[in-house]
Write a structure and sequence with these properties.
Elements (H helix, E strand, L loop, with lengths): L1 H25 L6 H12 L15 H30 L1 H19 L3 H6 L15
Helix pairs in contact: 3-4
Length: 133
Amino acid sequence: MSKPRLSIDLTMKNTSLVAIAISAASASAFLSASTTQNRKNAIVGKTTVRPMGLFDFFNEDARKEREERKQREIEEQERLQQEILARRSNPKMMEEYEAKVRVRRALRMSGNDEAAETVEMYGSDEEKIVGRN
């Protein structure tokens, strides 16, 4: 009588293992395509370098890139500030700027925002700005 009980226990264990295997295989349906692709690459043996977000923050190359980007932004802001200072000290440049502002405002008031975005408010690259250091 103990023998049938043993076969029922083994059958239940096997059924449970099969159910777990099937659910694990079908769980990939809920993963993103990139995660599924990464798993396939890992199985095949391919490796891809992926940014890890927070961990990349401590990477030396990422730190250098952040510092360079920050430095470029600071230089651009300084250049624009020097242009503003030069324009304020030169009445002719200030009149030109005010005319550009009037044109841009008129375009915005008429509802032509795309054209207003194209109005060049600050000087072009060919103008040399002499800064006050």
